Amino acid sequence: MVKVGWIAQRASQLFFLVILLQLPLFRIPCRSGFCSSPLEVTAVQFAASEIVHPMLLKLILYPGAFVRHVFVEGNFPRWQNILQEYNLSRLPPPSSTEKFRIEVIAGSYFAVAGSLVSLLKPGRMSLFGMLLVTWGLMKEGLFDKKVDGEPSPNEVHAQPTLVLALILAVLSIKYDMQKVQKLTQPVVKPLKSSSKAKIK
């Protein structure tokens, strides 16, 4: 029988790779153009606020850029061009619609942080982040206005890989089966006519 802890550990490791390698989960407008992963959304916010050194931004973005260049373009990305490749060197001022994507931004923060924390101790932060991202995408998809029935150029898309990330986030939660069994086992009380009840 496969242990629940082993499944949670492997799922959290796979979720970390999904986040780190920037597997496209969605397509949403952001200040750098279009963002397709929680790590990219987080990097845009960090670059805009200037609270993270550009060297650290390059470090967290390079693995995803490396995979994309090797498997799609057949070459290697240049370290000095990473920020320019993600359009993070000169970000425009925030648009009026960015505040309506607060769920995607906050969910991306939680997803990235949860992927790091889950490597040490699997928890619920990854799932909470992915649920926020999913709700933000659904909300924008439901209330996005289209002109003459045609999709707008800023239309939000959710990729099928988003379902994979949600499944990994659910499986990365480590349940204590002993506590679950104690909660589900019925408490047997002695009958009033029994000897144990009389002794009391």
Number of strands: 3
Along the chain, the helix and strand elements come as HEEHHHHHEHHH
Q: What gross morphology would you assign? A: globular
Mean pLDDT: 80
Reported for the largest beta sheet, the result is: 3 strands, antiparallel
Structural class: mainly alpha
Instruction: Indicate how many domains the architecture comprises.
Output: 1
Low-pLDDT stretches are: 145-151
Going across the biggest sheet, name each strand in turn.
Answer: 2-1-3
Helix content: 55-70%
Number of helices: 9
* Percent of residues in β-strands: 5-15%
Radius of gyration, CA atoms, in whole angstroms:
23 Å
Distance between the termini: 43 Å
Give a short summary of the structure.
By secondary structure, the chain is mostly helical. The chain is 57% helix and 5% strand.
Question: Top keywords for this entry?
Answer:
mainly alpha, 57% helix, 200 residues, three-stranded antiparallel β-sheet
Structure commentary:
It contains 9 helices and 3 strands. By secondary structure, it is mainly alpha-helical. The protein has one domain. The protein has a 3-stranded antiparallel sheet. The protein is globular and about 50 Å long.
